[in-house]
Amino acid sequence: MVNLAPADIRKEGSAYDLPIGLCILKASGQILAEDLERYVIMGELSLDGIVRPIKGALPIAIEARAQGFKGFILPKENAIEAAIVNNLDIIGVETLDDAIKFFEDKSSITPTFVDTRDIFYHEQNEFDQDFADVQGQENTKRALEIAAAGGHNIIMVGPPGSGKTMLAKRLPSILPPLTLQEALETTKIHSVAGKLGPHANLISKRPYRSPHHTISDVALVGGGGVPQPGEISLSHNGVLFLDELPEFKRTVLEVMRQPLEERFVNIARAKASVRFPANFMLVASMNPSPSGEFYTDDGNHPDSLQDVRRYLKKISGPLLDRIDIHIEVTPVSFDQMTADRKSEKSCVIRERVIKAREIQSVRFNDINDVHSNAMMPAQMVKKICKINEAGKTLLKTAMEKLGLSARAYDRILKVSRTIADLSGAEDIKIEHLAEAIQYRSLDRESWLG
Known about the structure:
Elements: H1 17-27, E1 39-41, E2 44-45, E3 51-52, H2 57-66, E4 71-75, H3 79-82, E5 89-93, H4 96-104, H5 116-123, H6 138-150, E6 154-157, H7 164-169, H8 180-192, E7 208-209, H9 217-221, E8 222-223, E9 228-229, H10 231-234, E10 239-242, H11 250-254, H12 257-262, E11 264-268, E12 273-277, E13 281-286, H13 305-312, H14 317-321, E14 325-328, H15 334-337, H16 346-363, H17 378-384, H18 389-402, H19 406-423, H20 430-438
Parallel strand pairs: 1-4, 4-5, 6-13, 6-14, 7-10, 10-13
Antiparallel strand pairs: 2-3, 8-9, 11-12
Helix pairs in contact: 6-16, 6-19, 16-19, 18-20, 19-20
C-alpha cells in the first residue's frame, strides 16, 4: 500500500512511478538508500524499467531548492532543463537501475551542470528572419518598430500577398532581448505545458506563437480538467500572432479582452484556481474585405459595402479598442521588389527599440508591474503623457471626427509617448501626436471609401 499524503491534494499522472518504485525497494530492504529523503524524485517508469520524461521539471527544481533538498533525481531528458537551477544536484537517470546504482554509489552519476548565462547570452541575438529581407513596406516597418518600442498591440490590414505574415514573423528580431528573469518565467510556463522538448535549456528568445483560426477558447486562454497554459500564456514575454483575425470564432476573441488588459488569466475549477501570466504583444492581421481587396466605391468591387461592414463587425469594438496601432498594408510594387536599395537590418532597428525601452525602464523604475508604455494604467497616462494646448486641440478634433472611445484616447497618448521616446524627445510634440492618430485606421468612418 502506498500513501500519498496529504490526501486532500489530488495527485495524478505517471511522474510518481520512479519515487514510488524506489520507496518500495527501500521499505522492503532490497536497496540501501539512507539519504533518500534528501532528494526530490520524479519520473515515469515503463514496464522495462526505462525512465520516461515528465512535464514541469524546471518549476519542480526551483521548489526543491527553495525547500532545501540536496538534489533532484529525474529523467535524463529533463536534466538540462532542471540544471538551470543552481545549488541543486541534478541527477539524470535513464533507467530504474541507474537510480538504484546512484544511491549505492554516489559517484556512479555525475550531476548535470549547465552554464546558463553563457548559453543564454550566446543564443539571444541569433534570428532566422530579418527585416533586411523585406523590400518596401516602410510605413508598416515603422509601425512595427513603434509597437516593439512600447509593447503595443498592432493589427495589419491588407490584401493577400501584401506581406503581413512575413512582417509579423520578423517582429521578434527587433524586440529587446529577454532578461534572465523573463527567460526563467517563460521557460517555466513552457515546461509546465510540456512544450520544451527533450534536452531543452533556458528559452533565450522571445516566444512567437501563431495558432490556427480554428483554435478553441480553452486552447487559446488555457484550461482543461487539470488547468494547462494556453497560447496566450505560451506567448508570455513574446508575440501572439493571429492571422486572418475575422476568421477566429467571436467567442475565442472575446476571451482575450481581460488578459489583454490585466496581463494574466485566471482559470477557476471546482477544487482549484490557477493564475497564468499572459503579458504578450498581440499582433493580428486581416483582409480589408471578404474578397481580400480594399473597398472602393467604383461599382466594380466584388463585395458590397454591406458585405464589407458585416465582415469587419466580426471583430468587436471593445477588442479593437485594445489594439493600439492599426496599419494599412498595401501590395509592394514591382519597382520596389526589384530595387537595389537594401532594407534596414533588424539589428539596427532593434538598437533604437532598446534605447526607447531603456527610457521607459527609468520612467517606470519605481512602479510595480509596469515596464513599458503600453502597460500604463489610465491614471498614469494623464500624468506621464501630457500634451500642450495645440496637441489638445488636434486630439479633440480627431476624437470628434473619428468618434473615438475613451480607451482609444488613452491608446493614442501611449503610442505618441512611445514615438517621442524613439526620437529621444522629453515631451510629446504635435508631430508625435499626429503620427499616433493616423494609427487608428479602423476607427475612421471614411475608411471604407
